[in-house]
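Hi V.,

You were right to ask for the full record rather than a summary. Here it is.
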Amino acid sequence: MTATASLSARKPARTEGWLLAGFQFAYAAWYAVCFASAVAHAKEFSGFWYIPSVDDQFTATEDVYAGWAWAEPVMWTVGMAPMVLGFSLVASVLTLIVGYAKGRRNLFAALIGGLVVTIMTLAFSLTPAGLSVAGWLID
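Predicted structure:
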């Protein structure tokens, strides 16, 4: 009787790709929550919804951070979003160029989805409204 060993080459799990895609989706959602929180906080000063800006008539003489527990994380998230999203965009493009998800449709779809979400969030953070709120928070 002859015994044969069957060794199959298993594909690596590609955990890093899943982490990258998950980070992109999570950061986009977190950015949306922080942006909405900042605009809602500006509403407390004016009484209506508007896009705040540096030295606007409603908050020019106010301390916008007083009594706002989420001021620090919101300021850092909205202010640093273009840089974080820019690095995330570069990571996504390089991951797709080198064929990291080759042969894995689910991972490829997740990476493409993360890339699209990153581009959309980056584009929004660079609009006049996004830059205005970021400047208002940093000021």
